[in-house]
Amino acid sequence: METAREFCQATAAACGEHRFGAALRTGGNLIALGNVRGRTELPGVATIGYSVVPTFWGQGFGTELAGLLVEFATGTVGAREVRATTLDGNPASTRVLEKLGFAAVEVGASEVDSRGDERRVTRWSLLRRSA
Q1: Cα(first)–Cα(last) distance of the chain, in Å?
Q2: How high is the mean pLDDT in each 10-residue block of the chain (131 residues)?
Q3: Using the 8-state DSSP alphabet, how is residue 88 labeled?
Q4: 3-class SS of residue 103
């Protein structure tokens, strides 16, 4: 729990991303983490990421958190395009992004994770129309 709090308290300027913790209103237990990163090499593009504690899967928290991250990315960060990545074979994350209007742009892409392990992913995009 303390590691999650430290993760969220890092300033956006120091780490290049905005980090959030999601907690239950009753009790304040931390149940999910999310992040929004503006892409300096691609102005107007931001990426989101999120993770929900397994005990709380299937209760709509991932969809709610991802929706709030999209709002932050398009509002506060000013992104016109929001990107996300899911592990192939993860239908729950696929449903979350589809519910929010994301479209798959690359299925079965190869990616190396932070531990150096190769994994298959789907890359997603959500374009916001100009007002």
Answers
A1: 40
A2: 50 68 88 91 93 94 96 94 94 96 96 92 89 51
A3: T
A4: strand
Full-model pTM: 0.83
The pLDDT value recorded for residue 60 is 94
Domain segments of the chain: what residues?
A: 2-127
Left (φ > 0), alpha (ψ -120 to 50) or beta: where does 46 sit? Answer: beta
Considering only CA atoms, give the Rg of the chain.
15
For the domain made up of 2-127, give the CATH fold: Aminopeptidase (3.40.630)
For the record, the structure tokens of 73 come out as 């990315």
On whether the CB atoms of residues 53 and 70 are closer than 8 A, the answer is: no
Query: What is the rounded CA–CA span in Å between residue 67 and residue 46?
Result: 14
